[in-house]
Amino acid sequence: MELIIESLRKNYGQKEALKGVSFALHQGVYGLLGPNGSGKSTLMNILTGNLQGTSGKVLWNDQNIVQMGKDYRKILGYVPQQQALYPDFTGVRFLSYIAALQGLTSREAKERIHYALDVVELSDVSGKKIRTYSGGMKQRLLIAQAILADPKLLIMDEPTAGLDPKQRALMRNLIVEIASDKIVLIATHVVSDVEWISKEILLLKEGELIRKGSRDCLVEEVKENMDSVMKKDAKELGLEDVYLYYFGEQYDETDLL
Ligand SMILES: Nc1ncnc2c1ncn2[C@@H]1O[C@H](COP(=O)(O)OP(=O)(O)OP(=O)(O)O)[C@@H](O)[C@H]1O
Q1: Which residue range(s) make up the domain with 168?
Q2: Which intervals hold domain ABC transporter (predicted)?
């Protein structure tokens, strides 16, 4: 199981949104961090097949995803940012609708819906209308739809946006559980969401991948680069300090609220 991104560029007219990004992902959770405008959405849109790069390629197990077409869609799950979720549908009706779009047979759909509802702990409320769900429940329903067809690659866009701290913690546990047999890539502004669950963090700045490594390696690097005065003040550094170090004043604390 391998996703390789090779020299990926994307230009919008004169604007270079991605400037030749290369990296490889294997089983596990990866956090994609970057300030507004760094190219995260562009990268996610290319990885989900909604946009084509200007040059470079994306390979799933050595096959170009553009040529894979429908076969790539089969291994891909996408959790979009929270959106209007058919408020008058029940949870189970929404998942049946998604299963039909994905071409699952009714037998497969029944089995997979049962499984997905169980994983995201929504079985009890699956007959209730989505309008009655809390933010956390809606987010878990979005995850359920993304794992219906048992994807090998799961891409998540700000999966904890709008959730309270308890729901965020539940979401993190759920992501770890789901990732046991998948590649999970999470794009977020919320550093704490990916700090402890990611095997690697990717830092995107102005269309370039400036760092990719484990949380501990990135923290250590920043520590080494600090001058001795700052080092003395810095007791325990964390991923937030790494973010601040590379993205400086572009860091917006309101993203954490
Ligand atoms: N359709 C477009 N036409 C022109 N420029 C674009 C277009 N889409 C994005 N851009 C520009 O490309 C750059 C990268 O945008 P992108 O949306 O990928 O960043 P981002 O990191 O996802 O930001 P955000 O977190 O705000 O969504 C930005 O400078 C943006 O203004």
Answers
A1: 3-88+152-213
A2: 3-231
Residue 190, CB half-sphere, CA atoms under 13 Å: how many?
Answer: 22
Residue 48 has φ and ψ, to the nearest 5°, of: -90, 5
Answer yes or no: is 8 within a domain: yes
Query: Does 73 reside within a domain?
Result: yes
What tens digit of pLDDT does each residue of 225-242 get? 876 556 656 568 899 999
What CA–CA distance (Å, rounded) separates 165 from 257? 10
The residue written with tokens 């048992």 in the block is: 150
In a domain, 24, yes or no: yes
Instruction: Report the relative pairing of strands 183-188 and 153-157 from DSSP bridges.
Output: parallel
220 close to 10: Cβ distance less than 8 angstroms:
no
For residue 224, is it within any domain?
Answer: no
Ligand 1 binding residues, C-beta < 6 A: 12, 15, 17, 34, 36-42
- How many domains, the chain? 1
Atom of ligand 1 nearest to the CA of 45: 18
Cα 16 to ligand 1 centre (Å): 9
Whether the per-residue pLDDT at 252 is higher than 60: the answer is: no
Poorest-pLDDT segment among 95-109, 163-177, 227-241: 227-241
Are β-strands 3-12 and 183-188 bridged in parallel, bridged antiparallel, or unpaired?
Answer: unpaired
Residue 58's domain is classified under what CATH number? 3.40.50.300
How high is the mean pLDDT of the chain? 90
Give nearest CA residue, ligand 1 atom 12: 17
Q: What is the pLDDT of residues 180-201, one digit of tens each?
A: 999 999 999 889 989 999 999 9
State pLDDT tens for residues 134-159.
888 998 999 999 999 999 999 999 88
Ligand 1 atom closest to Cα of 207? 14
Question: How far is the centre of ligand 1, averaged over its atoms, from the C-alpha of 94 (Å)?
Answer: 31
pTM metric for this prediction? 0.91
What's the 207 CA to ligand 1 centre distance in angstroms?
9
